Amino acid sequence: MTLADLTTRFALDGQLRFVEGPGGLLFAEIDNHLGTASLCLQGAHVTTFRPKDQDEPVIWLSEHAKFAPAKSIRGGAPICWPWFGPHATESSFPGHGFARTVMWEVTDTAALESGETRLALSLVESEQTRAQWPCASRVSLEVTVGATLTMTLSSTNLGSTPMQIGEALHTYFQIGDIAAIRVLGLEGSEYVDKVEGGVRKSETGAVTFADEVDRVYLNTEATCRIEDSRLGRRIVVAKRGSRSTVLWTPWRDKADKMGDFGDDGWRRMVCVESANALDNVVSVAPGQTHEMQVEYRAESL
User: Fold this and answer.
1) Radius of gyration of the chain, Cα coordinates, nearest whole angstrom
2) What are the backbone angles phi and psi of residue 129, rounded to the nearest 5°?
3) pTM score > 0.90 for this model?
4) What tens digit of pLDDT does each residue of 18-28 get?
5) Burial class for 160, CB neighbours closer than 10 Å (0-12, 13-18, 19+)
6) Looking at the DSSP assignment, which residues form a beta bridge with residue 200?
7) What are the pLDDT digits (tens) for 101-113?
8) 170 given a catalytic annotation
């Protein structure tokens, strides 16, 4: 669908417009009296979100993010689907699946009575996606932007046998400094420590950061809270349909090797990902739909 087609069919006066952005990629830009957000149609990738009552964005986007066809974007809320991490049997397939690097199509937009703006999208299948994911399925995303950001990822099994999916909203949050935050809500949860080779541990208290962290917390539906003393706020991550939470910060050495964080971008972000991964992959019965929904909001400490 061309930019002109998108504008004609789905733009909303005063709330939602479509533009060509960096790398020639198409973006939806939302600006209502409650909040602002942008979404790249490649990957259905929310790249920015800021409630109007916040001076700082809630969603972090690297100043050095690269925008190119079929490439992932550093920051925002990438969609990991239909697997999380490396593919179970085929090492040549992309890590975290293909959903974040292929085109999605807009299927609906709406200006809600609440003042929020809703945008719905569906993943566009191709020979490449079918070669990597032969299951007959449909995946869609609904994004609602206001004072909060709500994302609902839906996976429907169109086939005749159960399908197993791993998934995550790999969301990057903007913070004052990684060494000055803590994450609450995971106390008592078992987690897989990927930095230490997959050893399993149990969380004993609030999570703080002094080095690289890459953990998959299992069997938890808890709401997480990022307490940020530098910015004087708390980011709340409330979810349903998700049994895993992933915490990630690359710290300096790994960020420097990645090349799209800049000198200290890694200090200004933390990933708190709502997921179904490892022990918590989801089996979707024929004809059924699995939904994972996450709401993000910010409040003063």
Assistant:
1) 18
2) -65, -40
3) yes
4) 999 999 999 99
5) exposed
6) 192
7) 999 999 999 999 9
8) yes
pLDDT tens, position by position, 261-290: 999 999 999 999 999 999 999 999 999 999
Structure tokens at 228: 């940020």
Percent of the chain with pLDDT over 90: 99
Active-site entry in 170, 196, 291, 295: 170
Beta bridge partners of 78: none
CATH 3.90.1300.10 holds for 3-300: no
Nearest to 147, CA basis, from 227, 26, 30:
30
- Termini Cα distance of the chain: 44
Q: Which of 116, 142, 167, 273 is catalytic?
A: 273
- What integer pLDDT is reported at residue 1 of this predicted model? 86
For residues 167 and 281, give the distance between their C-alpha atoms in angstroms, rounded to a whole number.
8
Structure-token pair, residue 141 = 């995303």
Q: Which two tokens stand for residue 101?
A: 């690097």
Decide: helix, strand or coil at residue 167: strand
Annotated active-site residue 273? The verdict is yes
Residue type, 293: Q
pLDDT, tens digit, for every residue of 44-66?
A: 999 999 999 999 999 999 999 99
